[in-house]
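WARN retry 2 of 3 for item q-0093 after timeout on previous attempt; input resubmitted unchanged.
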Amino acid sequence: MATLFPKNAVEKPEPLQAEVKGTIPSWLQGTLLRNGPGIFSVGDTSYNHWFDGMAIMHSFVFKNGEVIHRSRFLRSDTYKANMAANRIVVSEMGTMAYPDPSKSFLVKAVTFLNHTMPDFTDNGASNFIKYGNEYYATSETNYLRKIDPVTLETQDKVDYKKYLPVNLATSHPHYDKEGNTYNIGTSIAEKGKTKYILFKVPAVSEKDKGKNVPALKNVEIICTVPSHYLLTPCYYHSFGITDNYFIFIEQPYKLDILKTATAYMRGVNWASCMKFYPQENTLIHLINRRTGKEVETKYYTGAMVVYHHVNAFEDNGHVIVDVIAYDDTRLYDMFYLKEDVPGKHHYESFPKPRYTRLALPIQRDEGIACGENLVKLKYTTASAVKEKEGKIMCQVEVLSEDVELPRINYDFNGKKHRFVYVNCAEEGQSKQIGKFDTETKEMVHWSEDNCQPSEPVFIPRANGESEDDGVVLTSVINFNPGQCSFILVLDGRTFKELARAYVTTELLKDMHGFFIPQGNQ
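OK item q-0093 returned
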């Protein structure tokens, strides 16, 4: 069988000093964590999809101009079960696995009869989340794995469902300056209802400081948004936030619960239970952060698929929502590892990501005629046309194309931003990163021959003089013979290289990163 198969990573859990070329700013002190799939085959079995690979975590500690690197596999229950059996026995989104092939029909039948929803994996290979003072490796299931951000050792397994009724939750939460974390999850068929739950994990209180109190114990439900369909809630990967609103995009990319519940019995993966409905509109929910109530106006736009929000902000009676949008779901299909998976696409039909802007007018529209554009901002061509019964149809503005994995100066999260740091896609591969100016629409790039950079992470300089006063960090896979991969440090303003730190560990393509300033661990 032909494959696009990556090799398994090798962990190096002991700290190793990187070789620094150039000068790392003295103010840059802290730890960059990165997460992604690292094991793709166990024994004679292999995963069908790149996202399914078992997690490997990396840390890059910046201190006094030096960099210390280490890496470690996440010792999830999934990892332990697979390694003990010397084969893949825990299912992932793109790979359905069975503990014992000789008993597969009986196992499938029992699972079908006893479970409405399957027990998902705890292979947190997507990102890191901070809840309270705790750090977790996460994917999008109900399971999190607490980790030590210094040693990368795996600690407690945490089930969201013990604290609030969600079967799925994003790995892209939001944080405020007080230390609170906000996230959203899907509650499936709970008491006959399927809904989306926005929740808050408060900062550690004075009474809990120094105590071993799980951060999720104090979780607060902010609001719930009913799903339009009991058995087909939408898929989402992230959401937006401003000073006064949450933005949740309910897109016509749906998970069929009945198909998911029977996938094991039918011998198909869970990804096959998701379907895009291009004939349907996308519904945009605007929720007041203080009241927890959704605004009465109903905002719609055409069918689209969004994985990553860039940012959202309020301006002169509007909520501006910036996202990376696709016309279909081929992005997920592109990462199947086996070339002969029926109907799956690879780089020759790479879906085009578009940096897309929506403008949601929040001023009262009395006296405005149906068919009139309510957007009054001069710097965007995004429109919002009033329709009957309080509905507004939004048309997007495309600011740029072929960009993904957006990051901003997080001090501007929820506020008007100008600069966005992105991966620039070319035939499905990230061959360069860029700094995009949303005002001038100009992009400056960094690239190097035979090098593949990861998601760029912007670190602001304390008391910086401008939005882009800081550095951009990205891990770079170096395919040049005899050369090591490295962490790249770019000046946030000029986008010129300041330094690179070569590591002796071979880096693989990863997903997302999280920076912990020194003293916050």
